[in-house]
Write a structure and sequence with these properties.
By secondary structure, the protein is α/β, with parallel strands linked by helices. The chain is about 35% helix and about 15% strand. The strands form 3 sheets. The chain has a 6-stranded parallel sheet, with helices on both faces. Strand 7 and strand 8 form a beta hairpin. Helix 1 packs across helix 7. It is elongated, with a radius of gyration of 25 Å. The N and C termini lie far apart (about 55 Å).
Length: about 400
């Protein structure tokens, strides 16, 4: 038996893999800030740099709470907040001082914005050659579309995912109704930062570098054979609804109680098991639907048979039969289903946190899971400027009088 993994609360901050790394997060909304949040979960000090009086617009995104929103409380986890006007020369100077004492910068301004303020890569690298800079934008730092504004919905569309989402011949739908491209880009951003930090330490010269992540590229990278199939054989994949052209039955089915399940028979063996579970073993015979090619050729008939069987029982009954027969089948869960599911509870996927004003807030727990140094959440998204005194006073050494003057001038 493996050793019992440690609980994150049992570890000192210095035990975590990113301890000793300071991250400046001057980005907004989700993508680049998500990278910073991941690093913070594993021990990095994350300083959120926000516009005085306004803060990250994400503070107003989603469901309002006693302060900010539930989205902010969840996604700005583990961060400290300082206010700083980067457009003001005094603010830019303070930012340079912070850069000099940091390892990572996460930003997602439109390309050229930081350069306009005298805070571009070349300037920041001169101040701190060890700096690793993550730059997230809609279309990347170069190319003919670099100046266009970009958001997750646009990235889904431009990157090729939205075209595939929905029913054939109908209006494309939003994939998942979430900011999927932002989270995907945040993950790629975290990978890029870790690789750059590794290279900085490995090379021996202590040189940092910048990472260029475009939202649409994160989407495009996740579309399996879409590109090779088109360029090799001219295959233009169209929306496939709830199924796929690569396997059958492989889709969503309504059960007798109105609830839904997902089924994934990605091999002939899986279909043979399903046929047994349905009490129709003859369906997997050589002259029927034994092979994927046979099933795809008559996919409407196969799906109809499976749909009729599913509709004859409740979802719980369908699930019990499929689990017993080792058929890949899962409930299509709402968040209400997830809240009651024992597996989510056993895995600790739902983390209960307390906020002095909001009370209890339930958020997704830390990923990935590390056996010896698991990440942790120490605090929900901070109040705007909550750490001004600690950062500007303790870290940069500004006096209380200086801080007050900067605040009056709306620099911080």
């Amino acid at each position: 038996m493996p050793d019992t993994p440690p609980h994150a609360a049992d570890l000192a901050p210095s035990d975590l893999p990113m301890s000793g790394i300071r991250v400046l997060d001057c980005a907004t909304f989700i993508a680049a800030p998500y990278t910073a949040a991941i690093l913070g979960e594993f021990g990095a000090e994350v300083i959120k740099v926000e516009q005085p009086g306004e803060g990250d617009p994400f503070r107003k995104f989603g469901t309002p709470a006693a302060r900010d929103t539930l989205a902010w409380l969840s996604e700005a986890r583990n961060k400290k907040s300082v206010t700083l006007n980067l457009r003001d020369p005094k603010g830019a100077d303070l930012f340079r001082q912070l850069i000099a004492q940091s390892d990572v910068l996460c930003e997602n301004f439109r390309p050229g914005t930081l350069e306009k303020w005298g805070l571009g890569w070349e300037e920041l690298k001169r101040i701190n050659p060890r700096l690793v800079m993550l730059r997230v934008s809609g279309y990347g730092q170069d190319g003919p579309y670099r100046d266009r504004p970009g958001f997750a919905r646009i990235a889904h569309a431009f990157g090729g995912l939205t075209y595939l989402a929905g029913l054939p011949g109908e209006l494309p739908v939003t994939p998942g109704s979430t900011s999927l491209a932002d989270y995907m880009s945040g993950l790629y951003g975290a990978i890029g930062v870790l690789l750059a930090l590794r290279q900085r330490d490995k090379a021996g010269n202590g040189q940092g570098q910048y990472i260029d992540v475009a939202l649409y590229e994160s989407v495009f990278r996740a579309l399996d054979e879409l590109a090779p199939a088109f360029f090799k054989i001219g295959k233009l994949r169209e929306p496939e609804g709830t199924g796929t052209t690569n396997a059958c039955p492989h889709g969503h089915f309504r059960c007798g109680d109105g609830k839904f399940v997902a089924v994934a028979c990605t091999s002939d063996k899986m279909f043979e098991r399903l046929a047994q579970v349905m009490g129709r073993p003859e369906l997997a015979a050589e002259d029927m639907f034994r092979t994927t090619r046979q099933r795809l050729a008559r996919h409407k008939e196969v799906d109809g048979i499976v749909a009729a069987w599913m509709h004859s029982m409740s979802r719980d009954e369908v699930m019990a039969a499929c689990i017993k027969g080792e058929v890949p089948c899962g409930p299509i869960n709402s968040i209400a289903d997830i809240a009651e599911d024992p597996h989510f509870q056993a895995r600790g996927n739902l983390l209960h946190m307390m906020d002095a004003l909001v009370g209890e807030v339930v958020i997704p727990n830390v990923l990935p899971r590390l056996s010896d140094t698991p990440g942790r959440v120490t605090n929900l998204g901070p109040s705007l400027g909550a750490d001004n005194d600690a950062i500007y006073g303790d870290l940069l050494g500004l006096s209380a009088e200086d801080r007050a003057a900067l605040k009056d001038a709306k620099v911080i």
